Amino acid sequence: MQNDSFIEFKRVSFGYGDRLILQDISLKIDRGQLVAIMGGSGSGKTTLLRLISGQIRAQEGQVLVDGRDVGRMNQRELYQHRRRMGMLFQFGALFTDLPVFDNVAFPIREHTSLSPQMVRDLVLMKLHAVGLRGTEALMPAELSGGMARRIALARAIALDPQIMLYDEPFTGLDPISLATIALLIKKLSDALGTSAVMVTHDVHKSLEIVDYVYFIAGGKIAAAGTPDEVRASDSPWVHQFIHGEADGPVHFAYPAQQSLAGSFGLEGA
Amino acid sequence: MMLDNLLAPLRHLGHSTINAIWKLGMMSRFLLAILAHSGQSLLRFQLTIREVYFAGVLSLIIIVVSGLFVGMVLGLQGYNTLSRFGSADALGALVALSLLRELGPVLAALLFASRSGSAMTAEIGLMKATEQLEAMSVMAVDPVARVVAPRFWAGVISMPILAALFNVMGIFGGYLVGVVMIGLDEGTFWSQMQNNVDLHFDVINGLIKSLFFGIAVTLIAVFEGFDATPTAAGVSSATTRTVVTSALVILALDFVLTAFMF
Question: Would the pTM of this model clear 0.90, i.e. be above it?
Fold first, then answer.
């Protein structure tokens, strides 16, 4: 139990049908560490998060969280596992029929039997932590994208999780909101001591806040290292990704399924 | 190639039959899941009460107004036909029996499906499309217990009450036309009804019908929402399917139930 790695992937493979998304992935995330998983769109980053939360199960290999295999948990164990976990969805996924207060109170009310006064105090504390204490009575539709993301963050940390999963937390935010969310993620990770996994393709902001980075490409880990190591990396792939170059080891053009001659029935002619 | 083209409709028929049976199986499993998770939602009854408000109370206007007009039309048509045979006195019985046995449960269920069933499908489908159901499940809260079961029970509870209200308004509409407008004898109107309507045979059976309709419509509505493709087009076609399937199921089920009951 004194093993420091809190989340561990051991030779994990996962695919939908014949299409393999993740192939033989092994990685470790230590207690209290904030780790970024980077890679292009469709590289299997979100799949990795879903494996940790147990929404999908690995077809091969093990996903260990605190020494327990998530893939072998039954429904009840899975729900117990999820109670220790917070997840920030790409677009917040706030309950649109509930005001901000009830959204943040939702996990607290569902999983504890605290008095309404306690719930209120907790919710206001969490809202205060994300700097939006004044918004408790607003409906999600009245919030800006950045605010909604922060409220969703407050909801995700409502029960002081041991694991935080962030699914593209920076997508579609203006620079100021983006910086705010990044700051909050860093602050919360430090304050709560959670192990956090952040899936993202925002390179620069992420490298500022995370402890370690894994790059995923083609379902495999293409590179890994601390932010400094990654910046100094001479791998052409990492270089292309970090500098956002259109062409390089990852090609600009999507490989054609069928040759042009083939689509006109001329192949072999 | 020719044979392939000829066989295509047959293949299509087979494909849709298998799909339909598969869906029926999924729906039965879904119903079992709802029942298995109902304990929790019945314990926290305020969740169900909230849904009764949205599905039932907010349907009152359409049910009350439609019931009134259907009753008035029944009064007019019934009077025209009955008076040809010199039995206009039986109008009260005609209005009450048609409503209690058939029109009340069936029309209320059709209205309920298009007003509340479609809303349930759209709401659950949109919750799915915006990852709210997934978020709930990741927060270790089962969406079937928290979102689906309360809506299901709200529908099952609301339907017979709405049908009963539809009947009351319909009978009142028949009274307005028959007695107030046409001028039939009030005593005859009510006593004919009293003599010919049996509490158990007509009233209770009608309510049992609407209970079955409530179960069917709400199950279809929540299932279609839960099963919807999480896109705008997916939610829209799921909503349409709810209304169409509910209407067909209500009418088919009505035939079966009538055959057994009366």
Answer: no
